[in-house]
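hey all, quick one before standup. I had two proteins in the batch that finished overnight and I want to keep them in one place so we stop losing track of which output belongs to which input. First protein below, input sequence then structure tokens straight from the run.
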Amino acid sequence: MKALVLYDTVTGNTRKIAETIFETLKENTIETDFFKTDTETDIDFFDYDIVFIGSGVIDWLPTEKLMKRLRGKLKSYSKTGKVLPSAPVLPGKFGICFCTFSGPHIGVREALPMTMWLRCFFEHIGFTVLDELHYCAEFHNREEMNTRGRYGVIAGRPDHHDLEDVKGRVKGILNSLSAYL
């Protein structure tokens, strides 16, 4: 099995989640590539069995850099015939969407459109989406936002407990994939 972790981050919150995913995959002897969105490497998602894509939530969506990269890849795949009408599911190709959101306003509902956007990318290229991971994260440069939101005090998040949850969820995903592999 070969895995990819692709992420974008503005403040470093999402990098913590991406690194934990990467480390957990490696601990489970999964060959894994790890890239930040602005890396110049041309990535072919079809080279991987399981792909994790994530970013911070910006205005309910992924970062502009990540969306631009994925739109470009979808356009390229369309031109080469890899994206087919009705988006048939490709056996053995799996995706997981992940994000960090600050949560001072309406909580996780702000993150749902973002992971749904990523989910649509995966489904257009025929990947089965196994999970969507949403993690509350510190709001940088606005300290009052870290204490007055629906999630209470979010300063320092994602914290040790969040990262342990990431490890557990990734291990669970890998366990569920054992039925397919």
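OK second protein, same deal, sequence then tokens:
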Amino acid sequence: MSNRSIDPHRLRYLALGDSYTIGESVDSYECFPAQLADRLRESGVDIGEPQIIARTGWTTDELLAGIDHAKMTGPYQLVTLLIGVNNQYRGRSVDEFRTQFAGLLKRAIAFAGNDPNRVIVVSIPDWGAMPFAKDRDRAKIAAEIDMFSAVCRDEAEAAGARFVDITLISRRVPSEPSLCAGDGLHPSAKMYQQWVELIIPAAKAALASPR
């Protein structure tokens, strides 16, 4: 969880998620929220360091509890939400995920001043493409990841939030090993950089919407 360099005069960014948001196995400045904020500043956007509410292993209900515990106060001009891989990994149902994800998205929109245009939902990476999963049923994992990500897309569209699909990038790992971190499971800084290339247009559009 990070709350660095909060300046009331800068735009505020809240990143909600799990290991993919904190950047497990990479340096803190290499996680995708940090790289996204850097890219926005490079383009002239005066945005502060991201406030990150995330932990490795969190499911949707655990993220909800983490939000309650953090007691953040909005509004934030940008909110990203990436969650669900641990629901799939633990064999939790898609129906349960939909209900809990919808609740999380509602919270994210509230943090964004009740403006869904300022919320970006990010699809779920496919951990089955990582070396860690070499002895697993990769086709089954991929199919389930797609089902959970489809829920994220559906709920984002229904709420009027933005959606960015980064799942295909994660599936390049077998042919591009440098996209995987040293632990054999999580993305490398290079993969997060590629995510940011897809997220940055949505982030700029979100920040350009009237305040």
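Flagging for whoever picks this up: Residues 138-159 form the longest helix (22 residues). Confidence is low (pLDDT under 50) at residues 1-6.
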